[in-house]
Design goal:
Blueprint: H1 2-24, H2 36-49, H3 65-76, H4 81-106, H5 109-126, H6 138-159, H7 163-179, H8 185-201, H9 204-231, H10 235-253, H11 258-273, H12 276-293, H13 302-322, H14 336-361, H15 375-392, H16 394-409, H17 420-428, E1 435-438, H18 443-448, H19 460-463, H20 470-482, E2 487-490, H21 503-508, H22 520-530, E3 531-536, E4 541-545
Parallel strand pairs: 1-2
Antiparallel strand pairs: 2-4, 3-4
Length: 552
Amino acid sequence: MKQNKLLFQAGLVFLFLFLPASLLYYGNPLDHMPGRDNGVFLYGGQQLLAGKTPYLDFWDHKGPLIYFINALGLLIGKGLRWGVWGIEFIFLFFAAMGIYQTAKIHWGKSTGIVAVMYWAYVLGQVGHYEYFHDTNYTEAYSLLFSVISVYFWSLASSSGRYRWCYFAMGISMGFSLLLRPNNIGIQASLILVDLLIAITKRNFSSFVKKVTFFILGASTVLATFAAWFLSRGALSAMLNAVFNYNIYYAQKNQVKGFATSYTELAIGSLSKLGWFPFLGYCVLLLLWVYQQSRRKPFTIDHKNAFILAILIDLPLETILSSISGRVFFHYLMIWTPGLAFLIGALANGIFIHSERVLHLFQPNHSNRQKTEVGPNLSNGLLIIALVYLFASNFSVLQGYIQLGNSLFFQRNKLPEAKTAVIKYVEDATHPGDAVLVWGNDVWINFMTDRVAPTQYSYQFPLFMPGYTNQDLVLSFLNDLQTTPPVLIVETRTDTAEMLPLNSKLREIARHAQVGTPEGMQQVFEYVNDNYCIVKEFHDTLIYRIKEDSDCK
């Protein structure tokens, strides 16, 4: 019996390891370059390690925690992306473990396996891994903080010991806020359910105590970061970038109205997830309403509160994901814990009815604890899950074997992919030289370890209606004049956000969704007067100071 338990635990650990490994392989640094968001975060982490301050020395509109996570990963990886890749692996590993443990608290081991497998499946469908071949998005790290909140809420509900559990929930929400304020749907749903419980039971004193510890936990995290930024004179800059800019960002993208963007995201999610989770939600909602209608008087307790939290969370997540007005499917990553618990709840119902059918045919069958049909079911599900993962990820396993051979048997330095642009910039500049990337491919600054000459390492805020102004643009121009970049790298410009630097490309993009901000024409003239194109790649132009080049 003890040996079987150890084998089961070992199988679970392997499952929790294999799931993130199968996802992260598609964005491993050996085979793939970082994407745009990933590149901004990596550059931010790199600059943080160099003693720079977010929002003052380098600008972005995401919460500050992502740069600290990247800085930690780069510190561990000695400047290489593998360290950040490893940090995300750890986050996903514990997220998988947390989903299993939470489902186990409510329904048992078999349901936990079903929940964590479905979580990994939908994460692969909506995430940035296989489709974008990228990693290191804020949503990926928020998953762990969401799962931690649900786990400690479940622990508090089942044990009655709420103080430290709600304090831990508050800490996790604080970290989620510092990644992306939209990523707090689960925490908000759990607190709302607690409020409904207090209303139905008329026990507000318990609710107030729970919320007090919850707020205390969140405040501890937020106050710590606020104090750090205040000490560096960057608190107002952080608030301006994270909140003020994002308000204008949402207004710009919500020109058709919130209902339109919400509908577009909902319809788009169908193409990624199919109808199954939506039908499952309707079934679970109807079952919950039916069961509650039979209760006299109506109350909400531990047995049905978690289902209610799931039912509240998923619509709330869709609303929060639609605020920006942009339909990016990686926003759906934050839905995945709720979807996992939704499927877990449905699987639990199936297991319960299966057990009842078995009892009809086996009247002397011993009762099982909780809702487990039996240990054979959980063992069988685990074996099926592992066999399926092996069979469906054979190419991934081969890739890891080749990677391991390169690292451990050939004793090579941990390799990373490089493009022709990266190699050219490295060869054409020296460490310490400034390089401006025109566009949002800040990963070029990171990969070459060449700092941008301005805090606006990408120029979206300079083109954002309502946020930008002449003073902002002229300060950018002053940065270029004070610290002239040795090279300017112009990648393919997203004309929904900004204009190309090259005059011919601007003419082609004359119907772009953005105009020319006040002062930007002076920037274009400065570059045209002082720089010329010295190299062209497929979709990239490289400019150099005229006096240092052969062009005129």
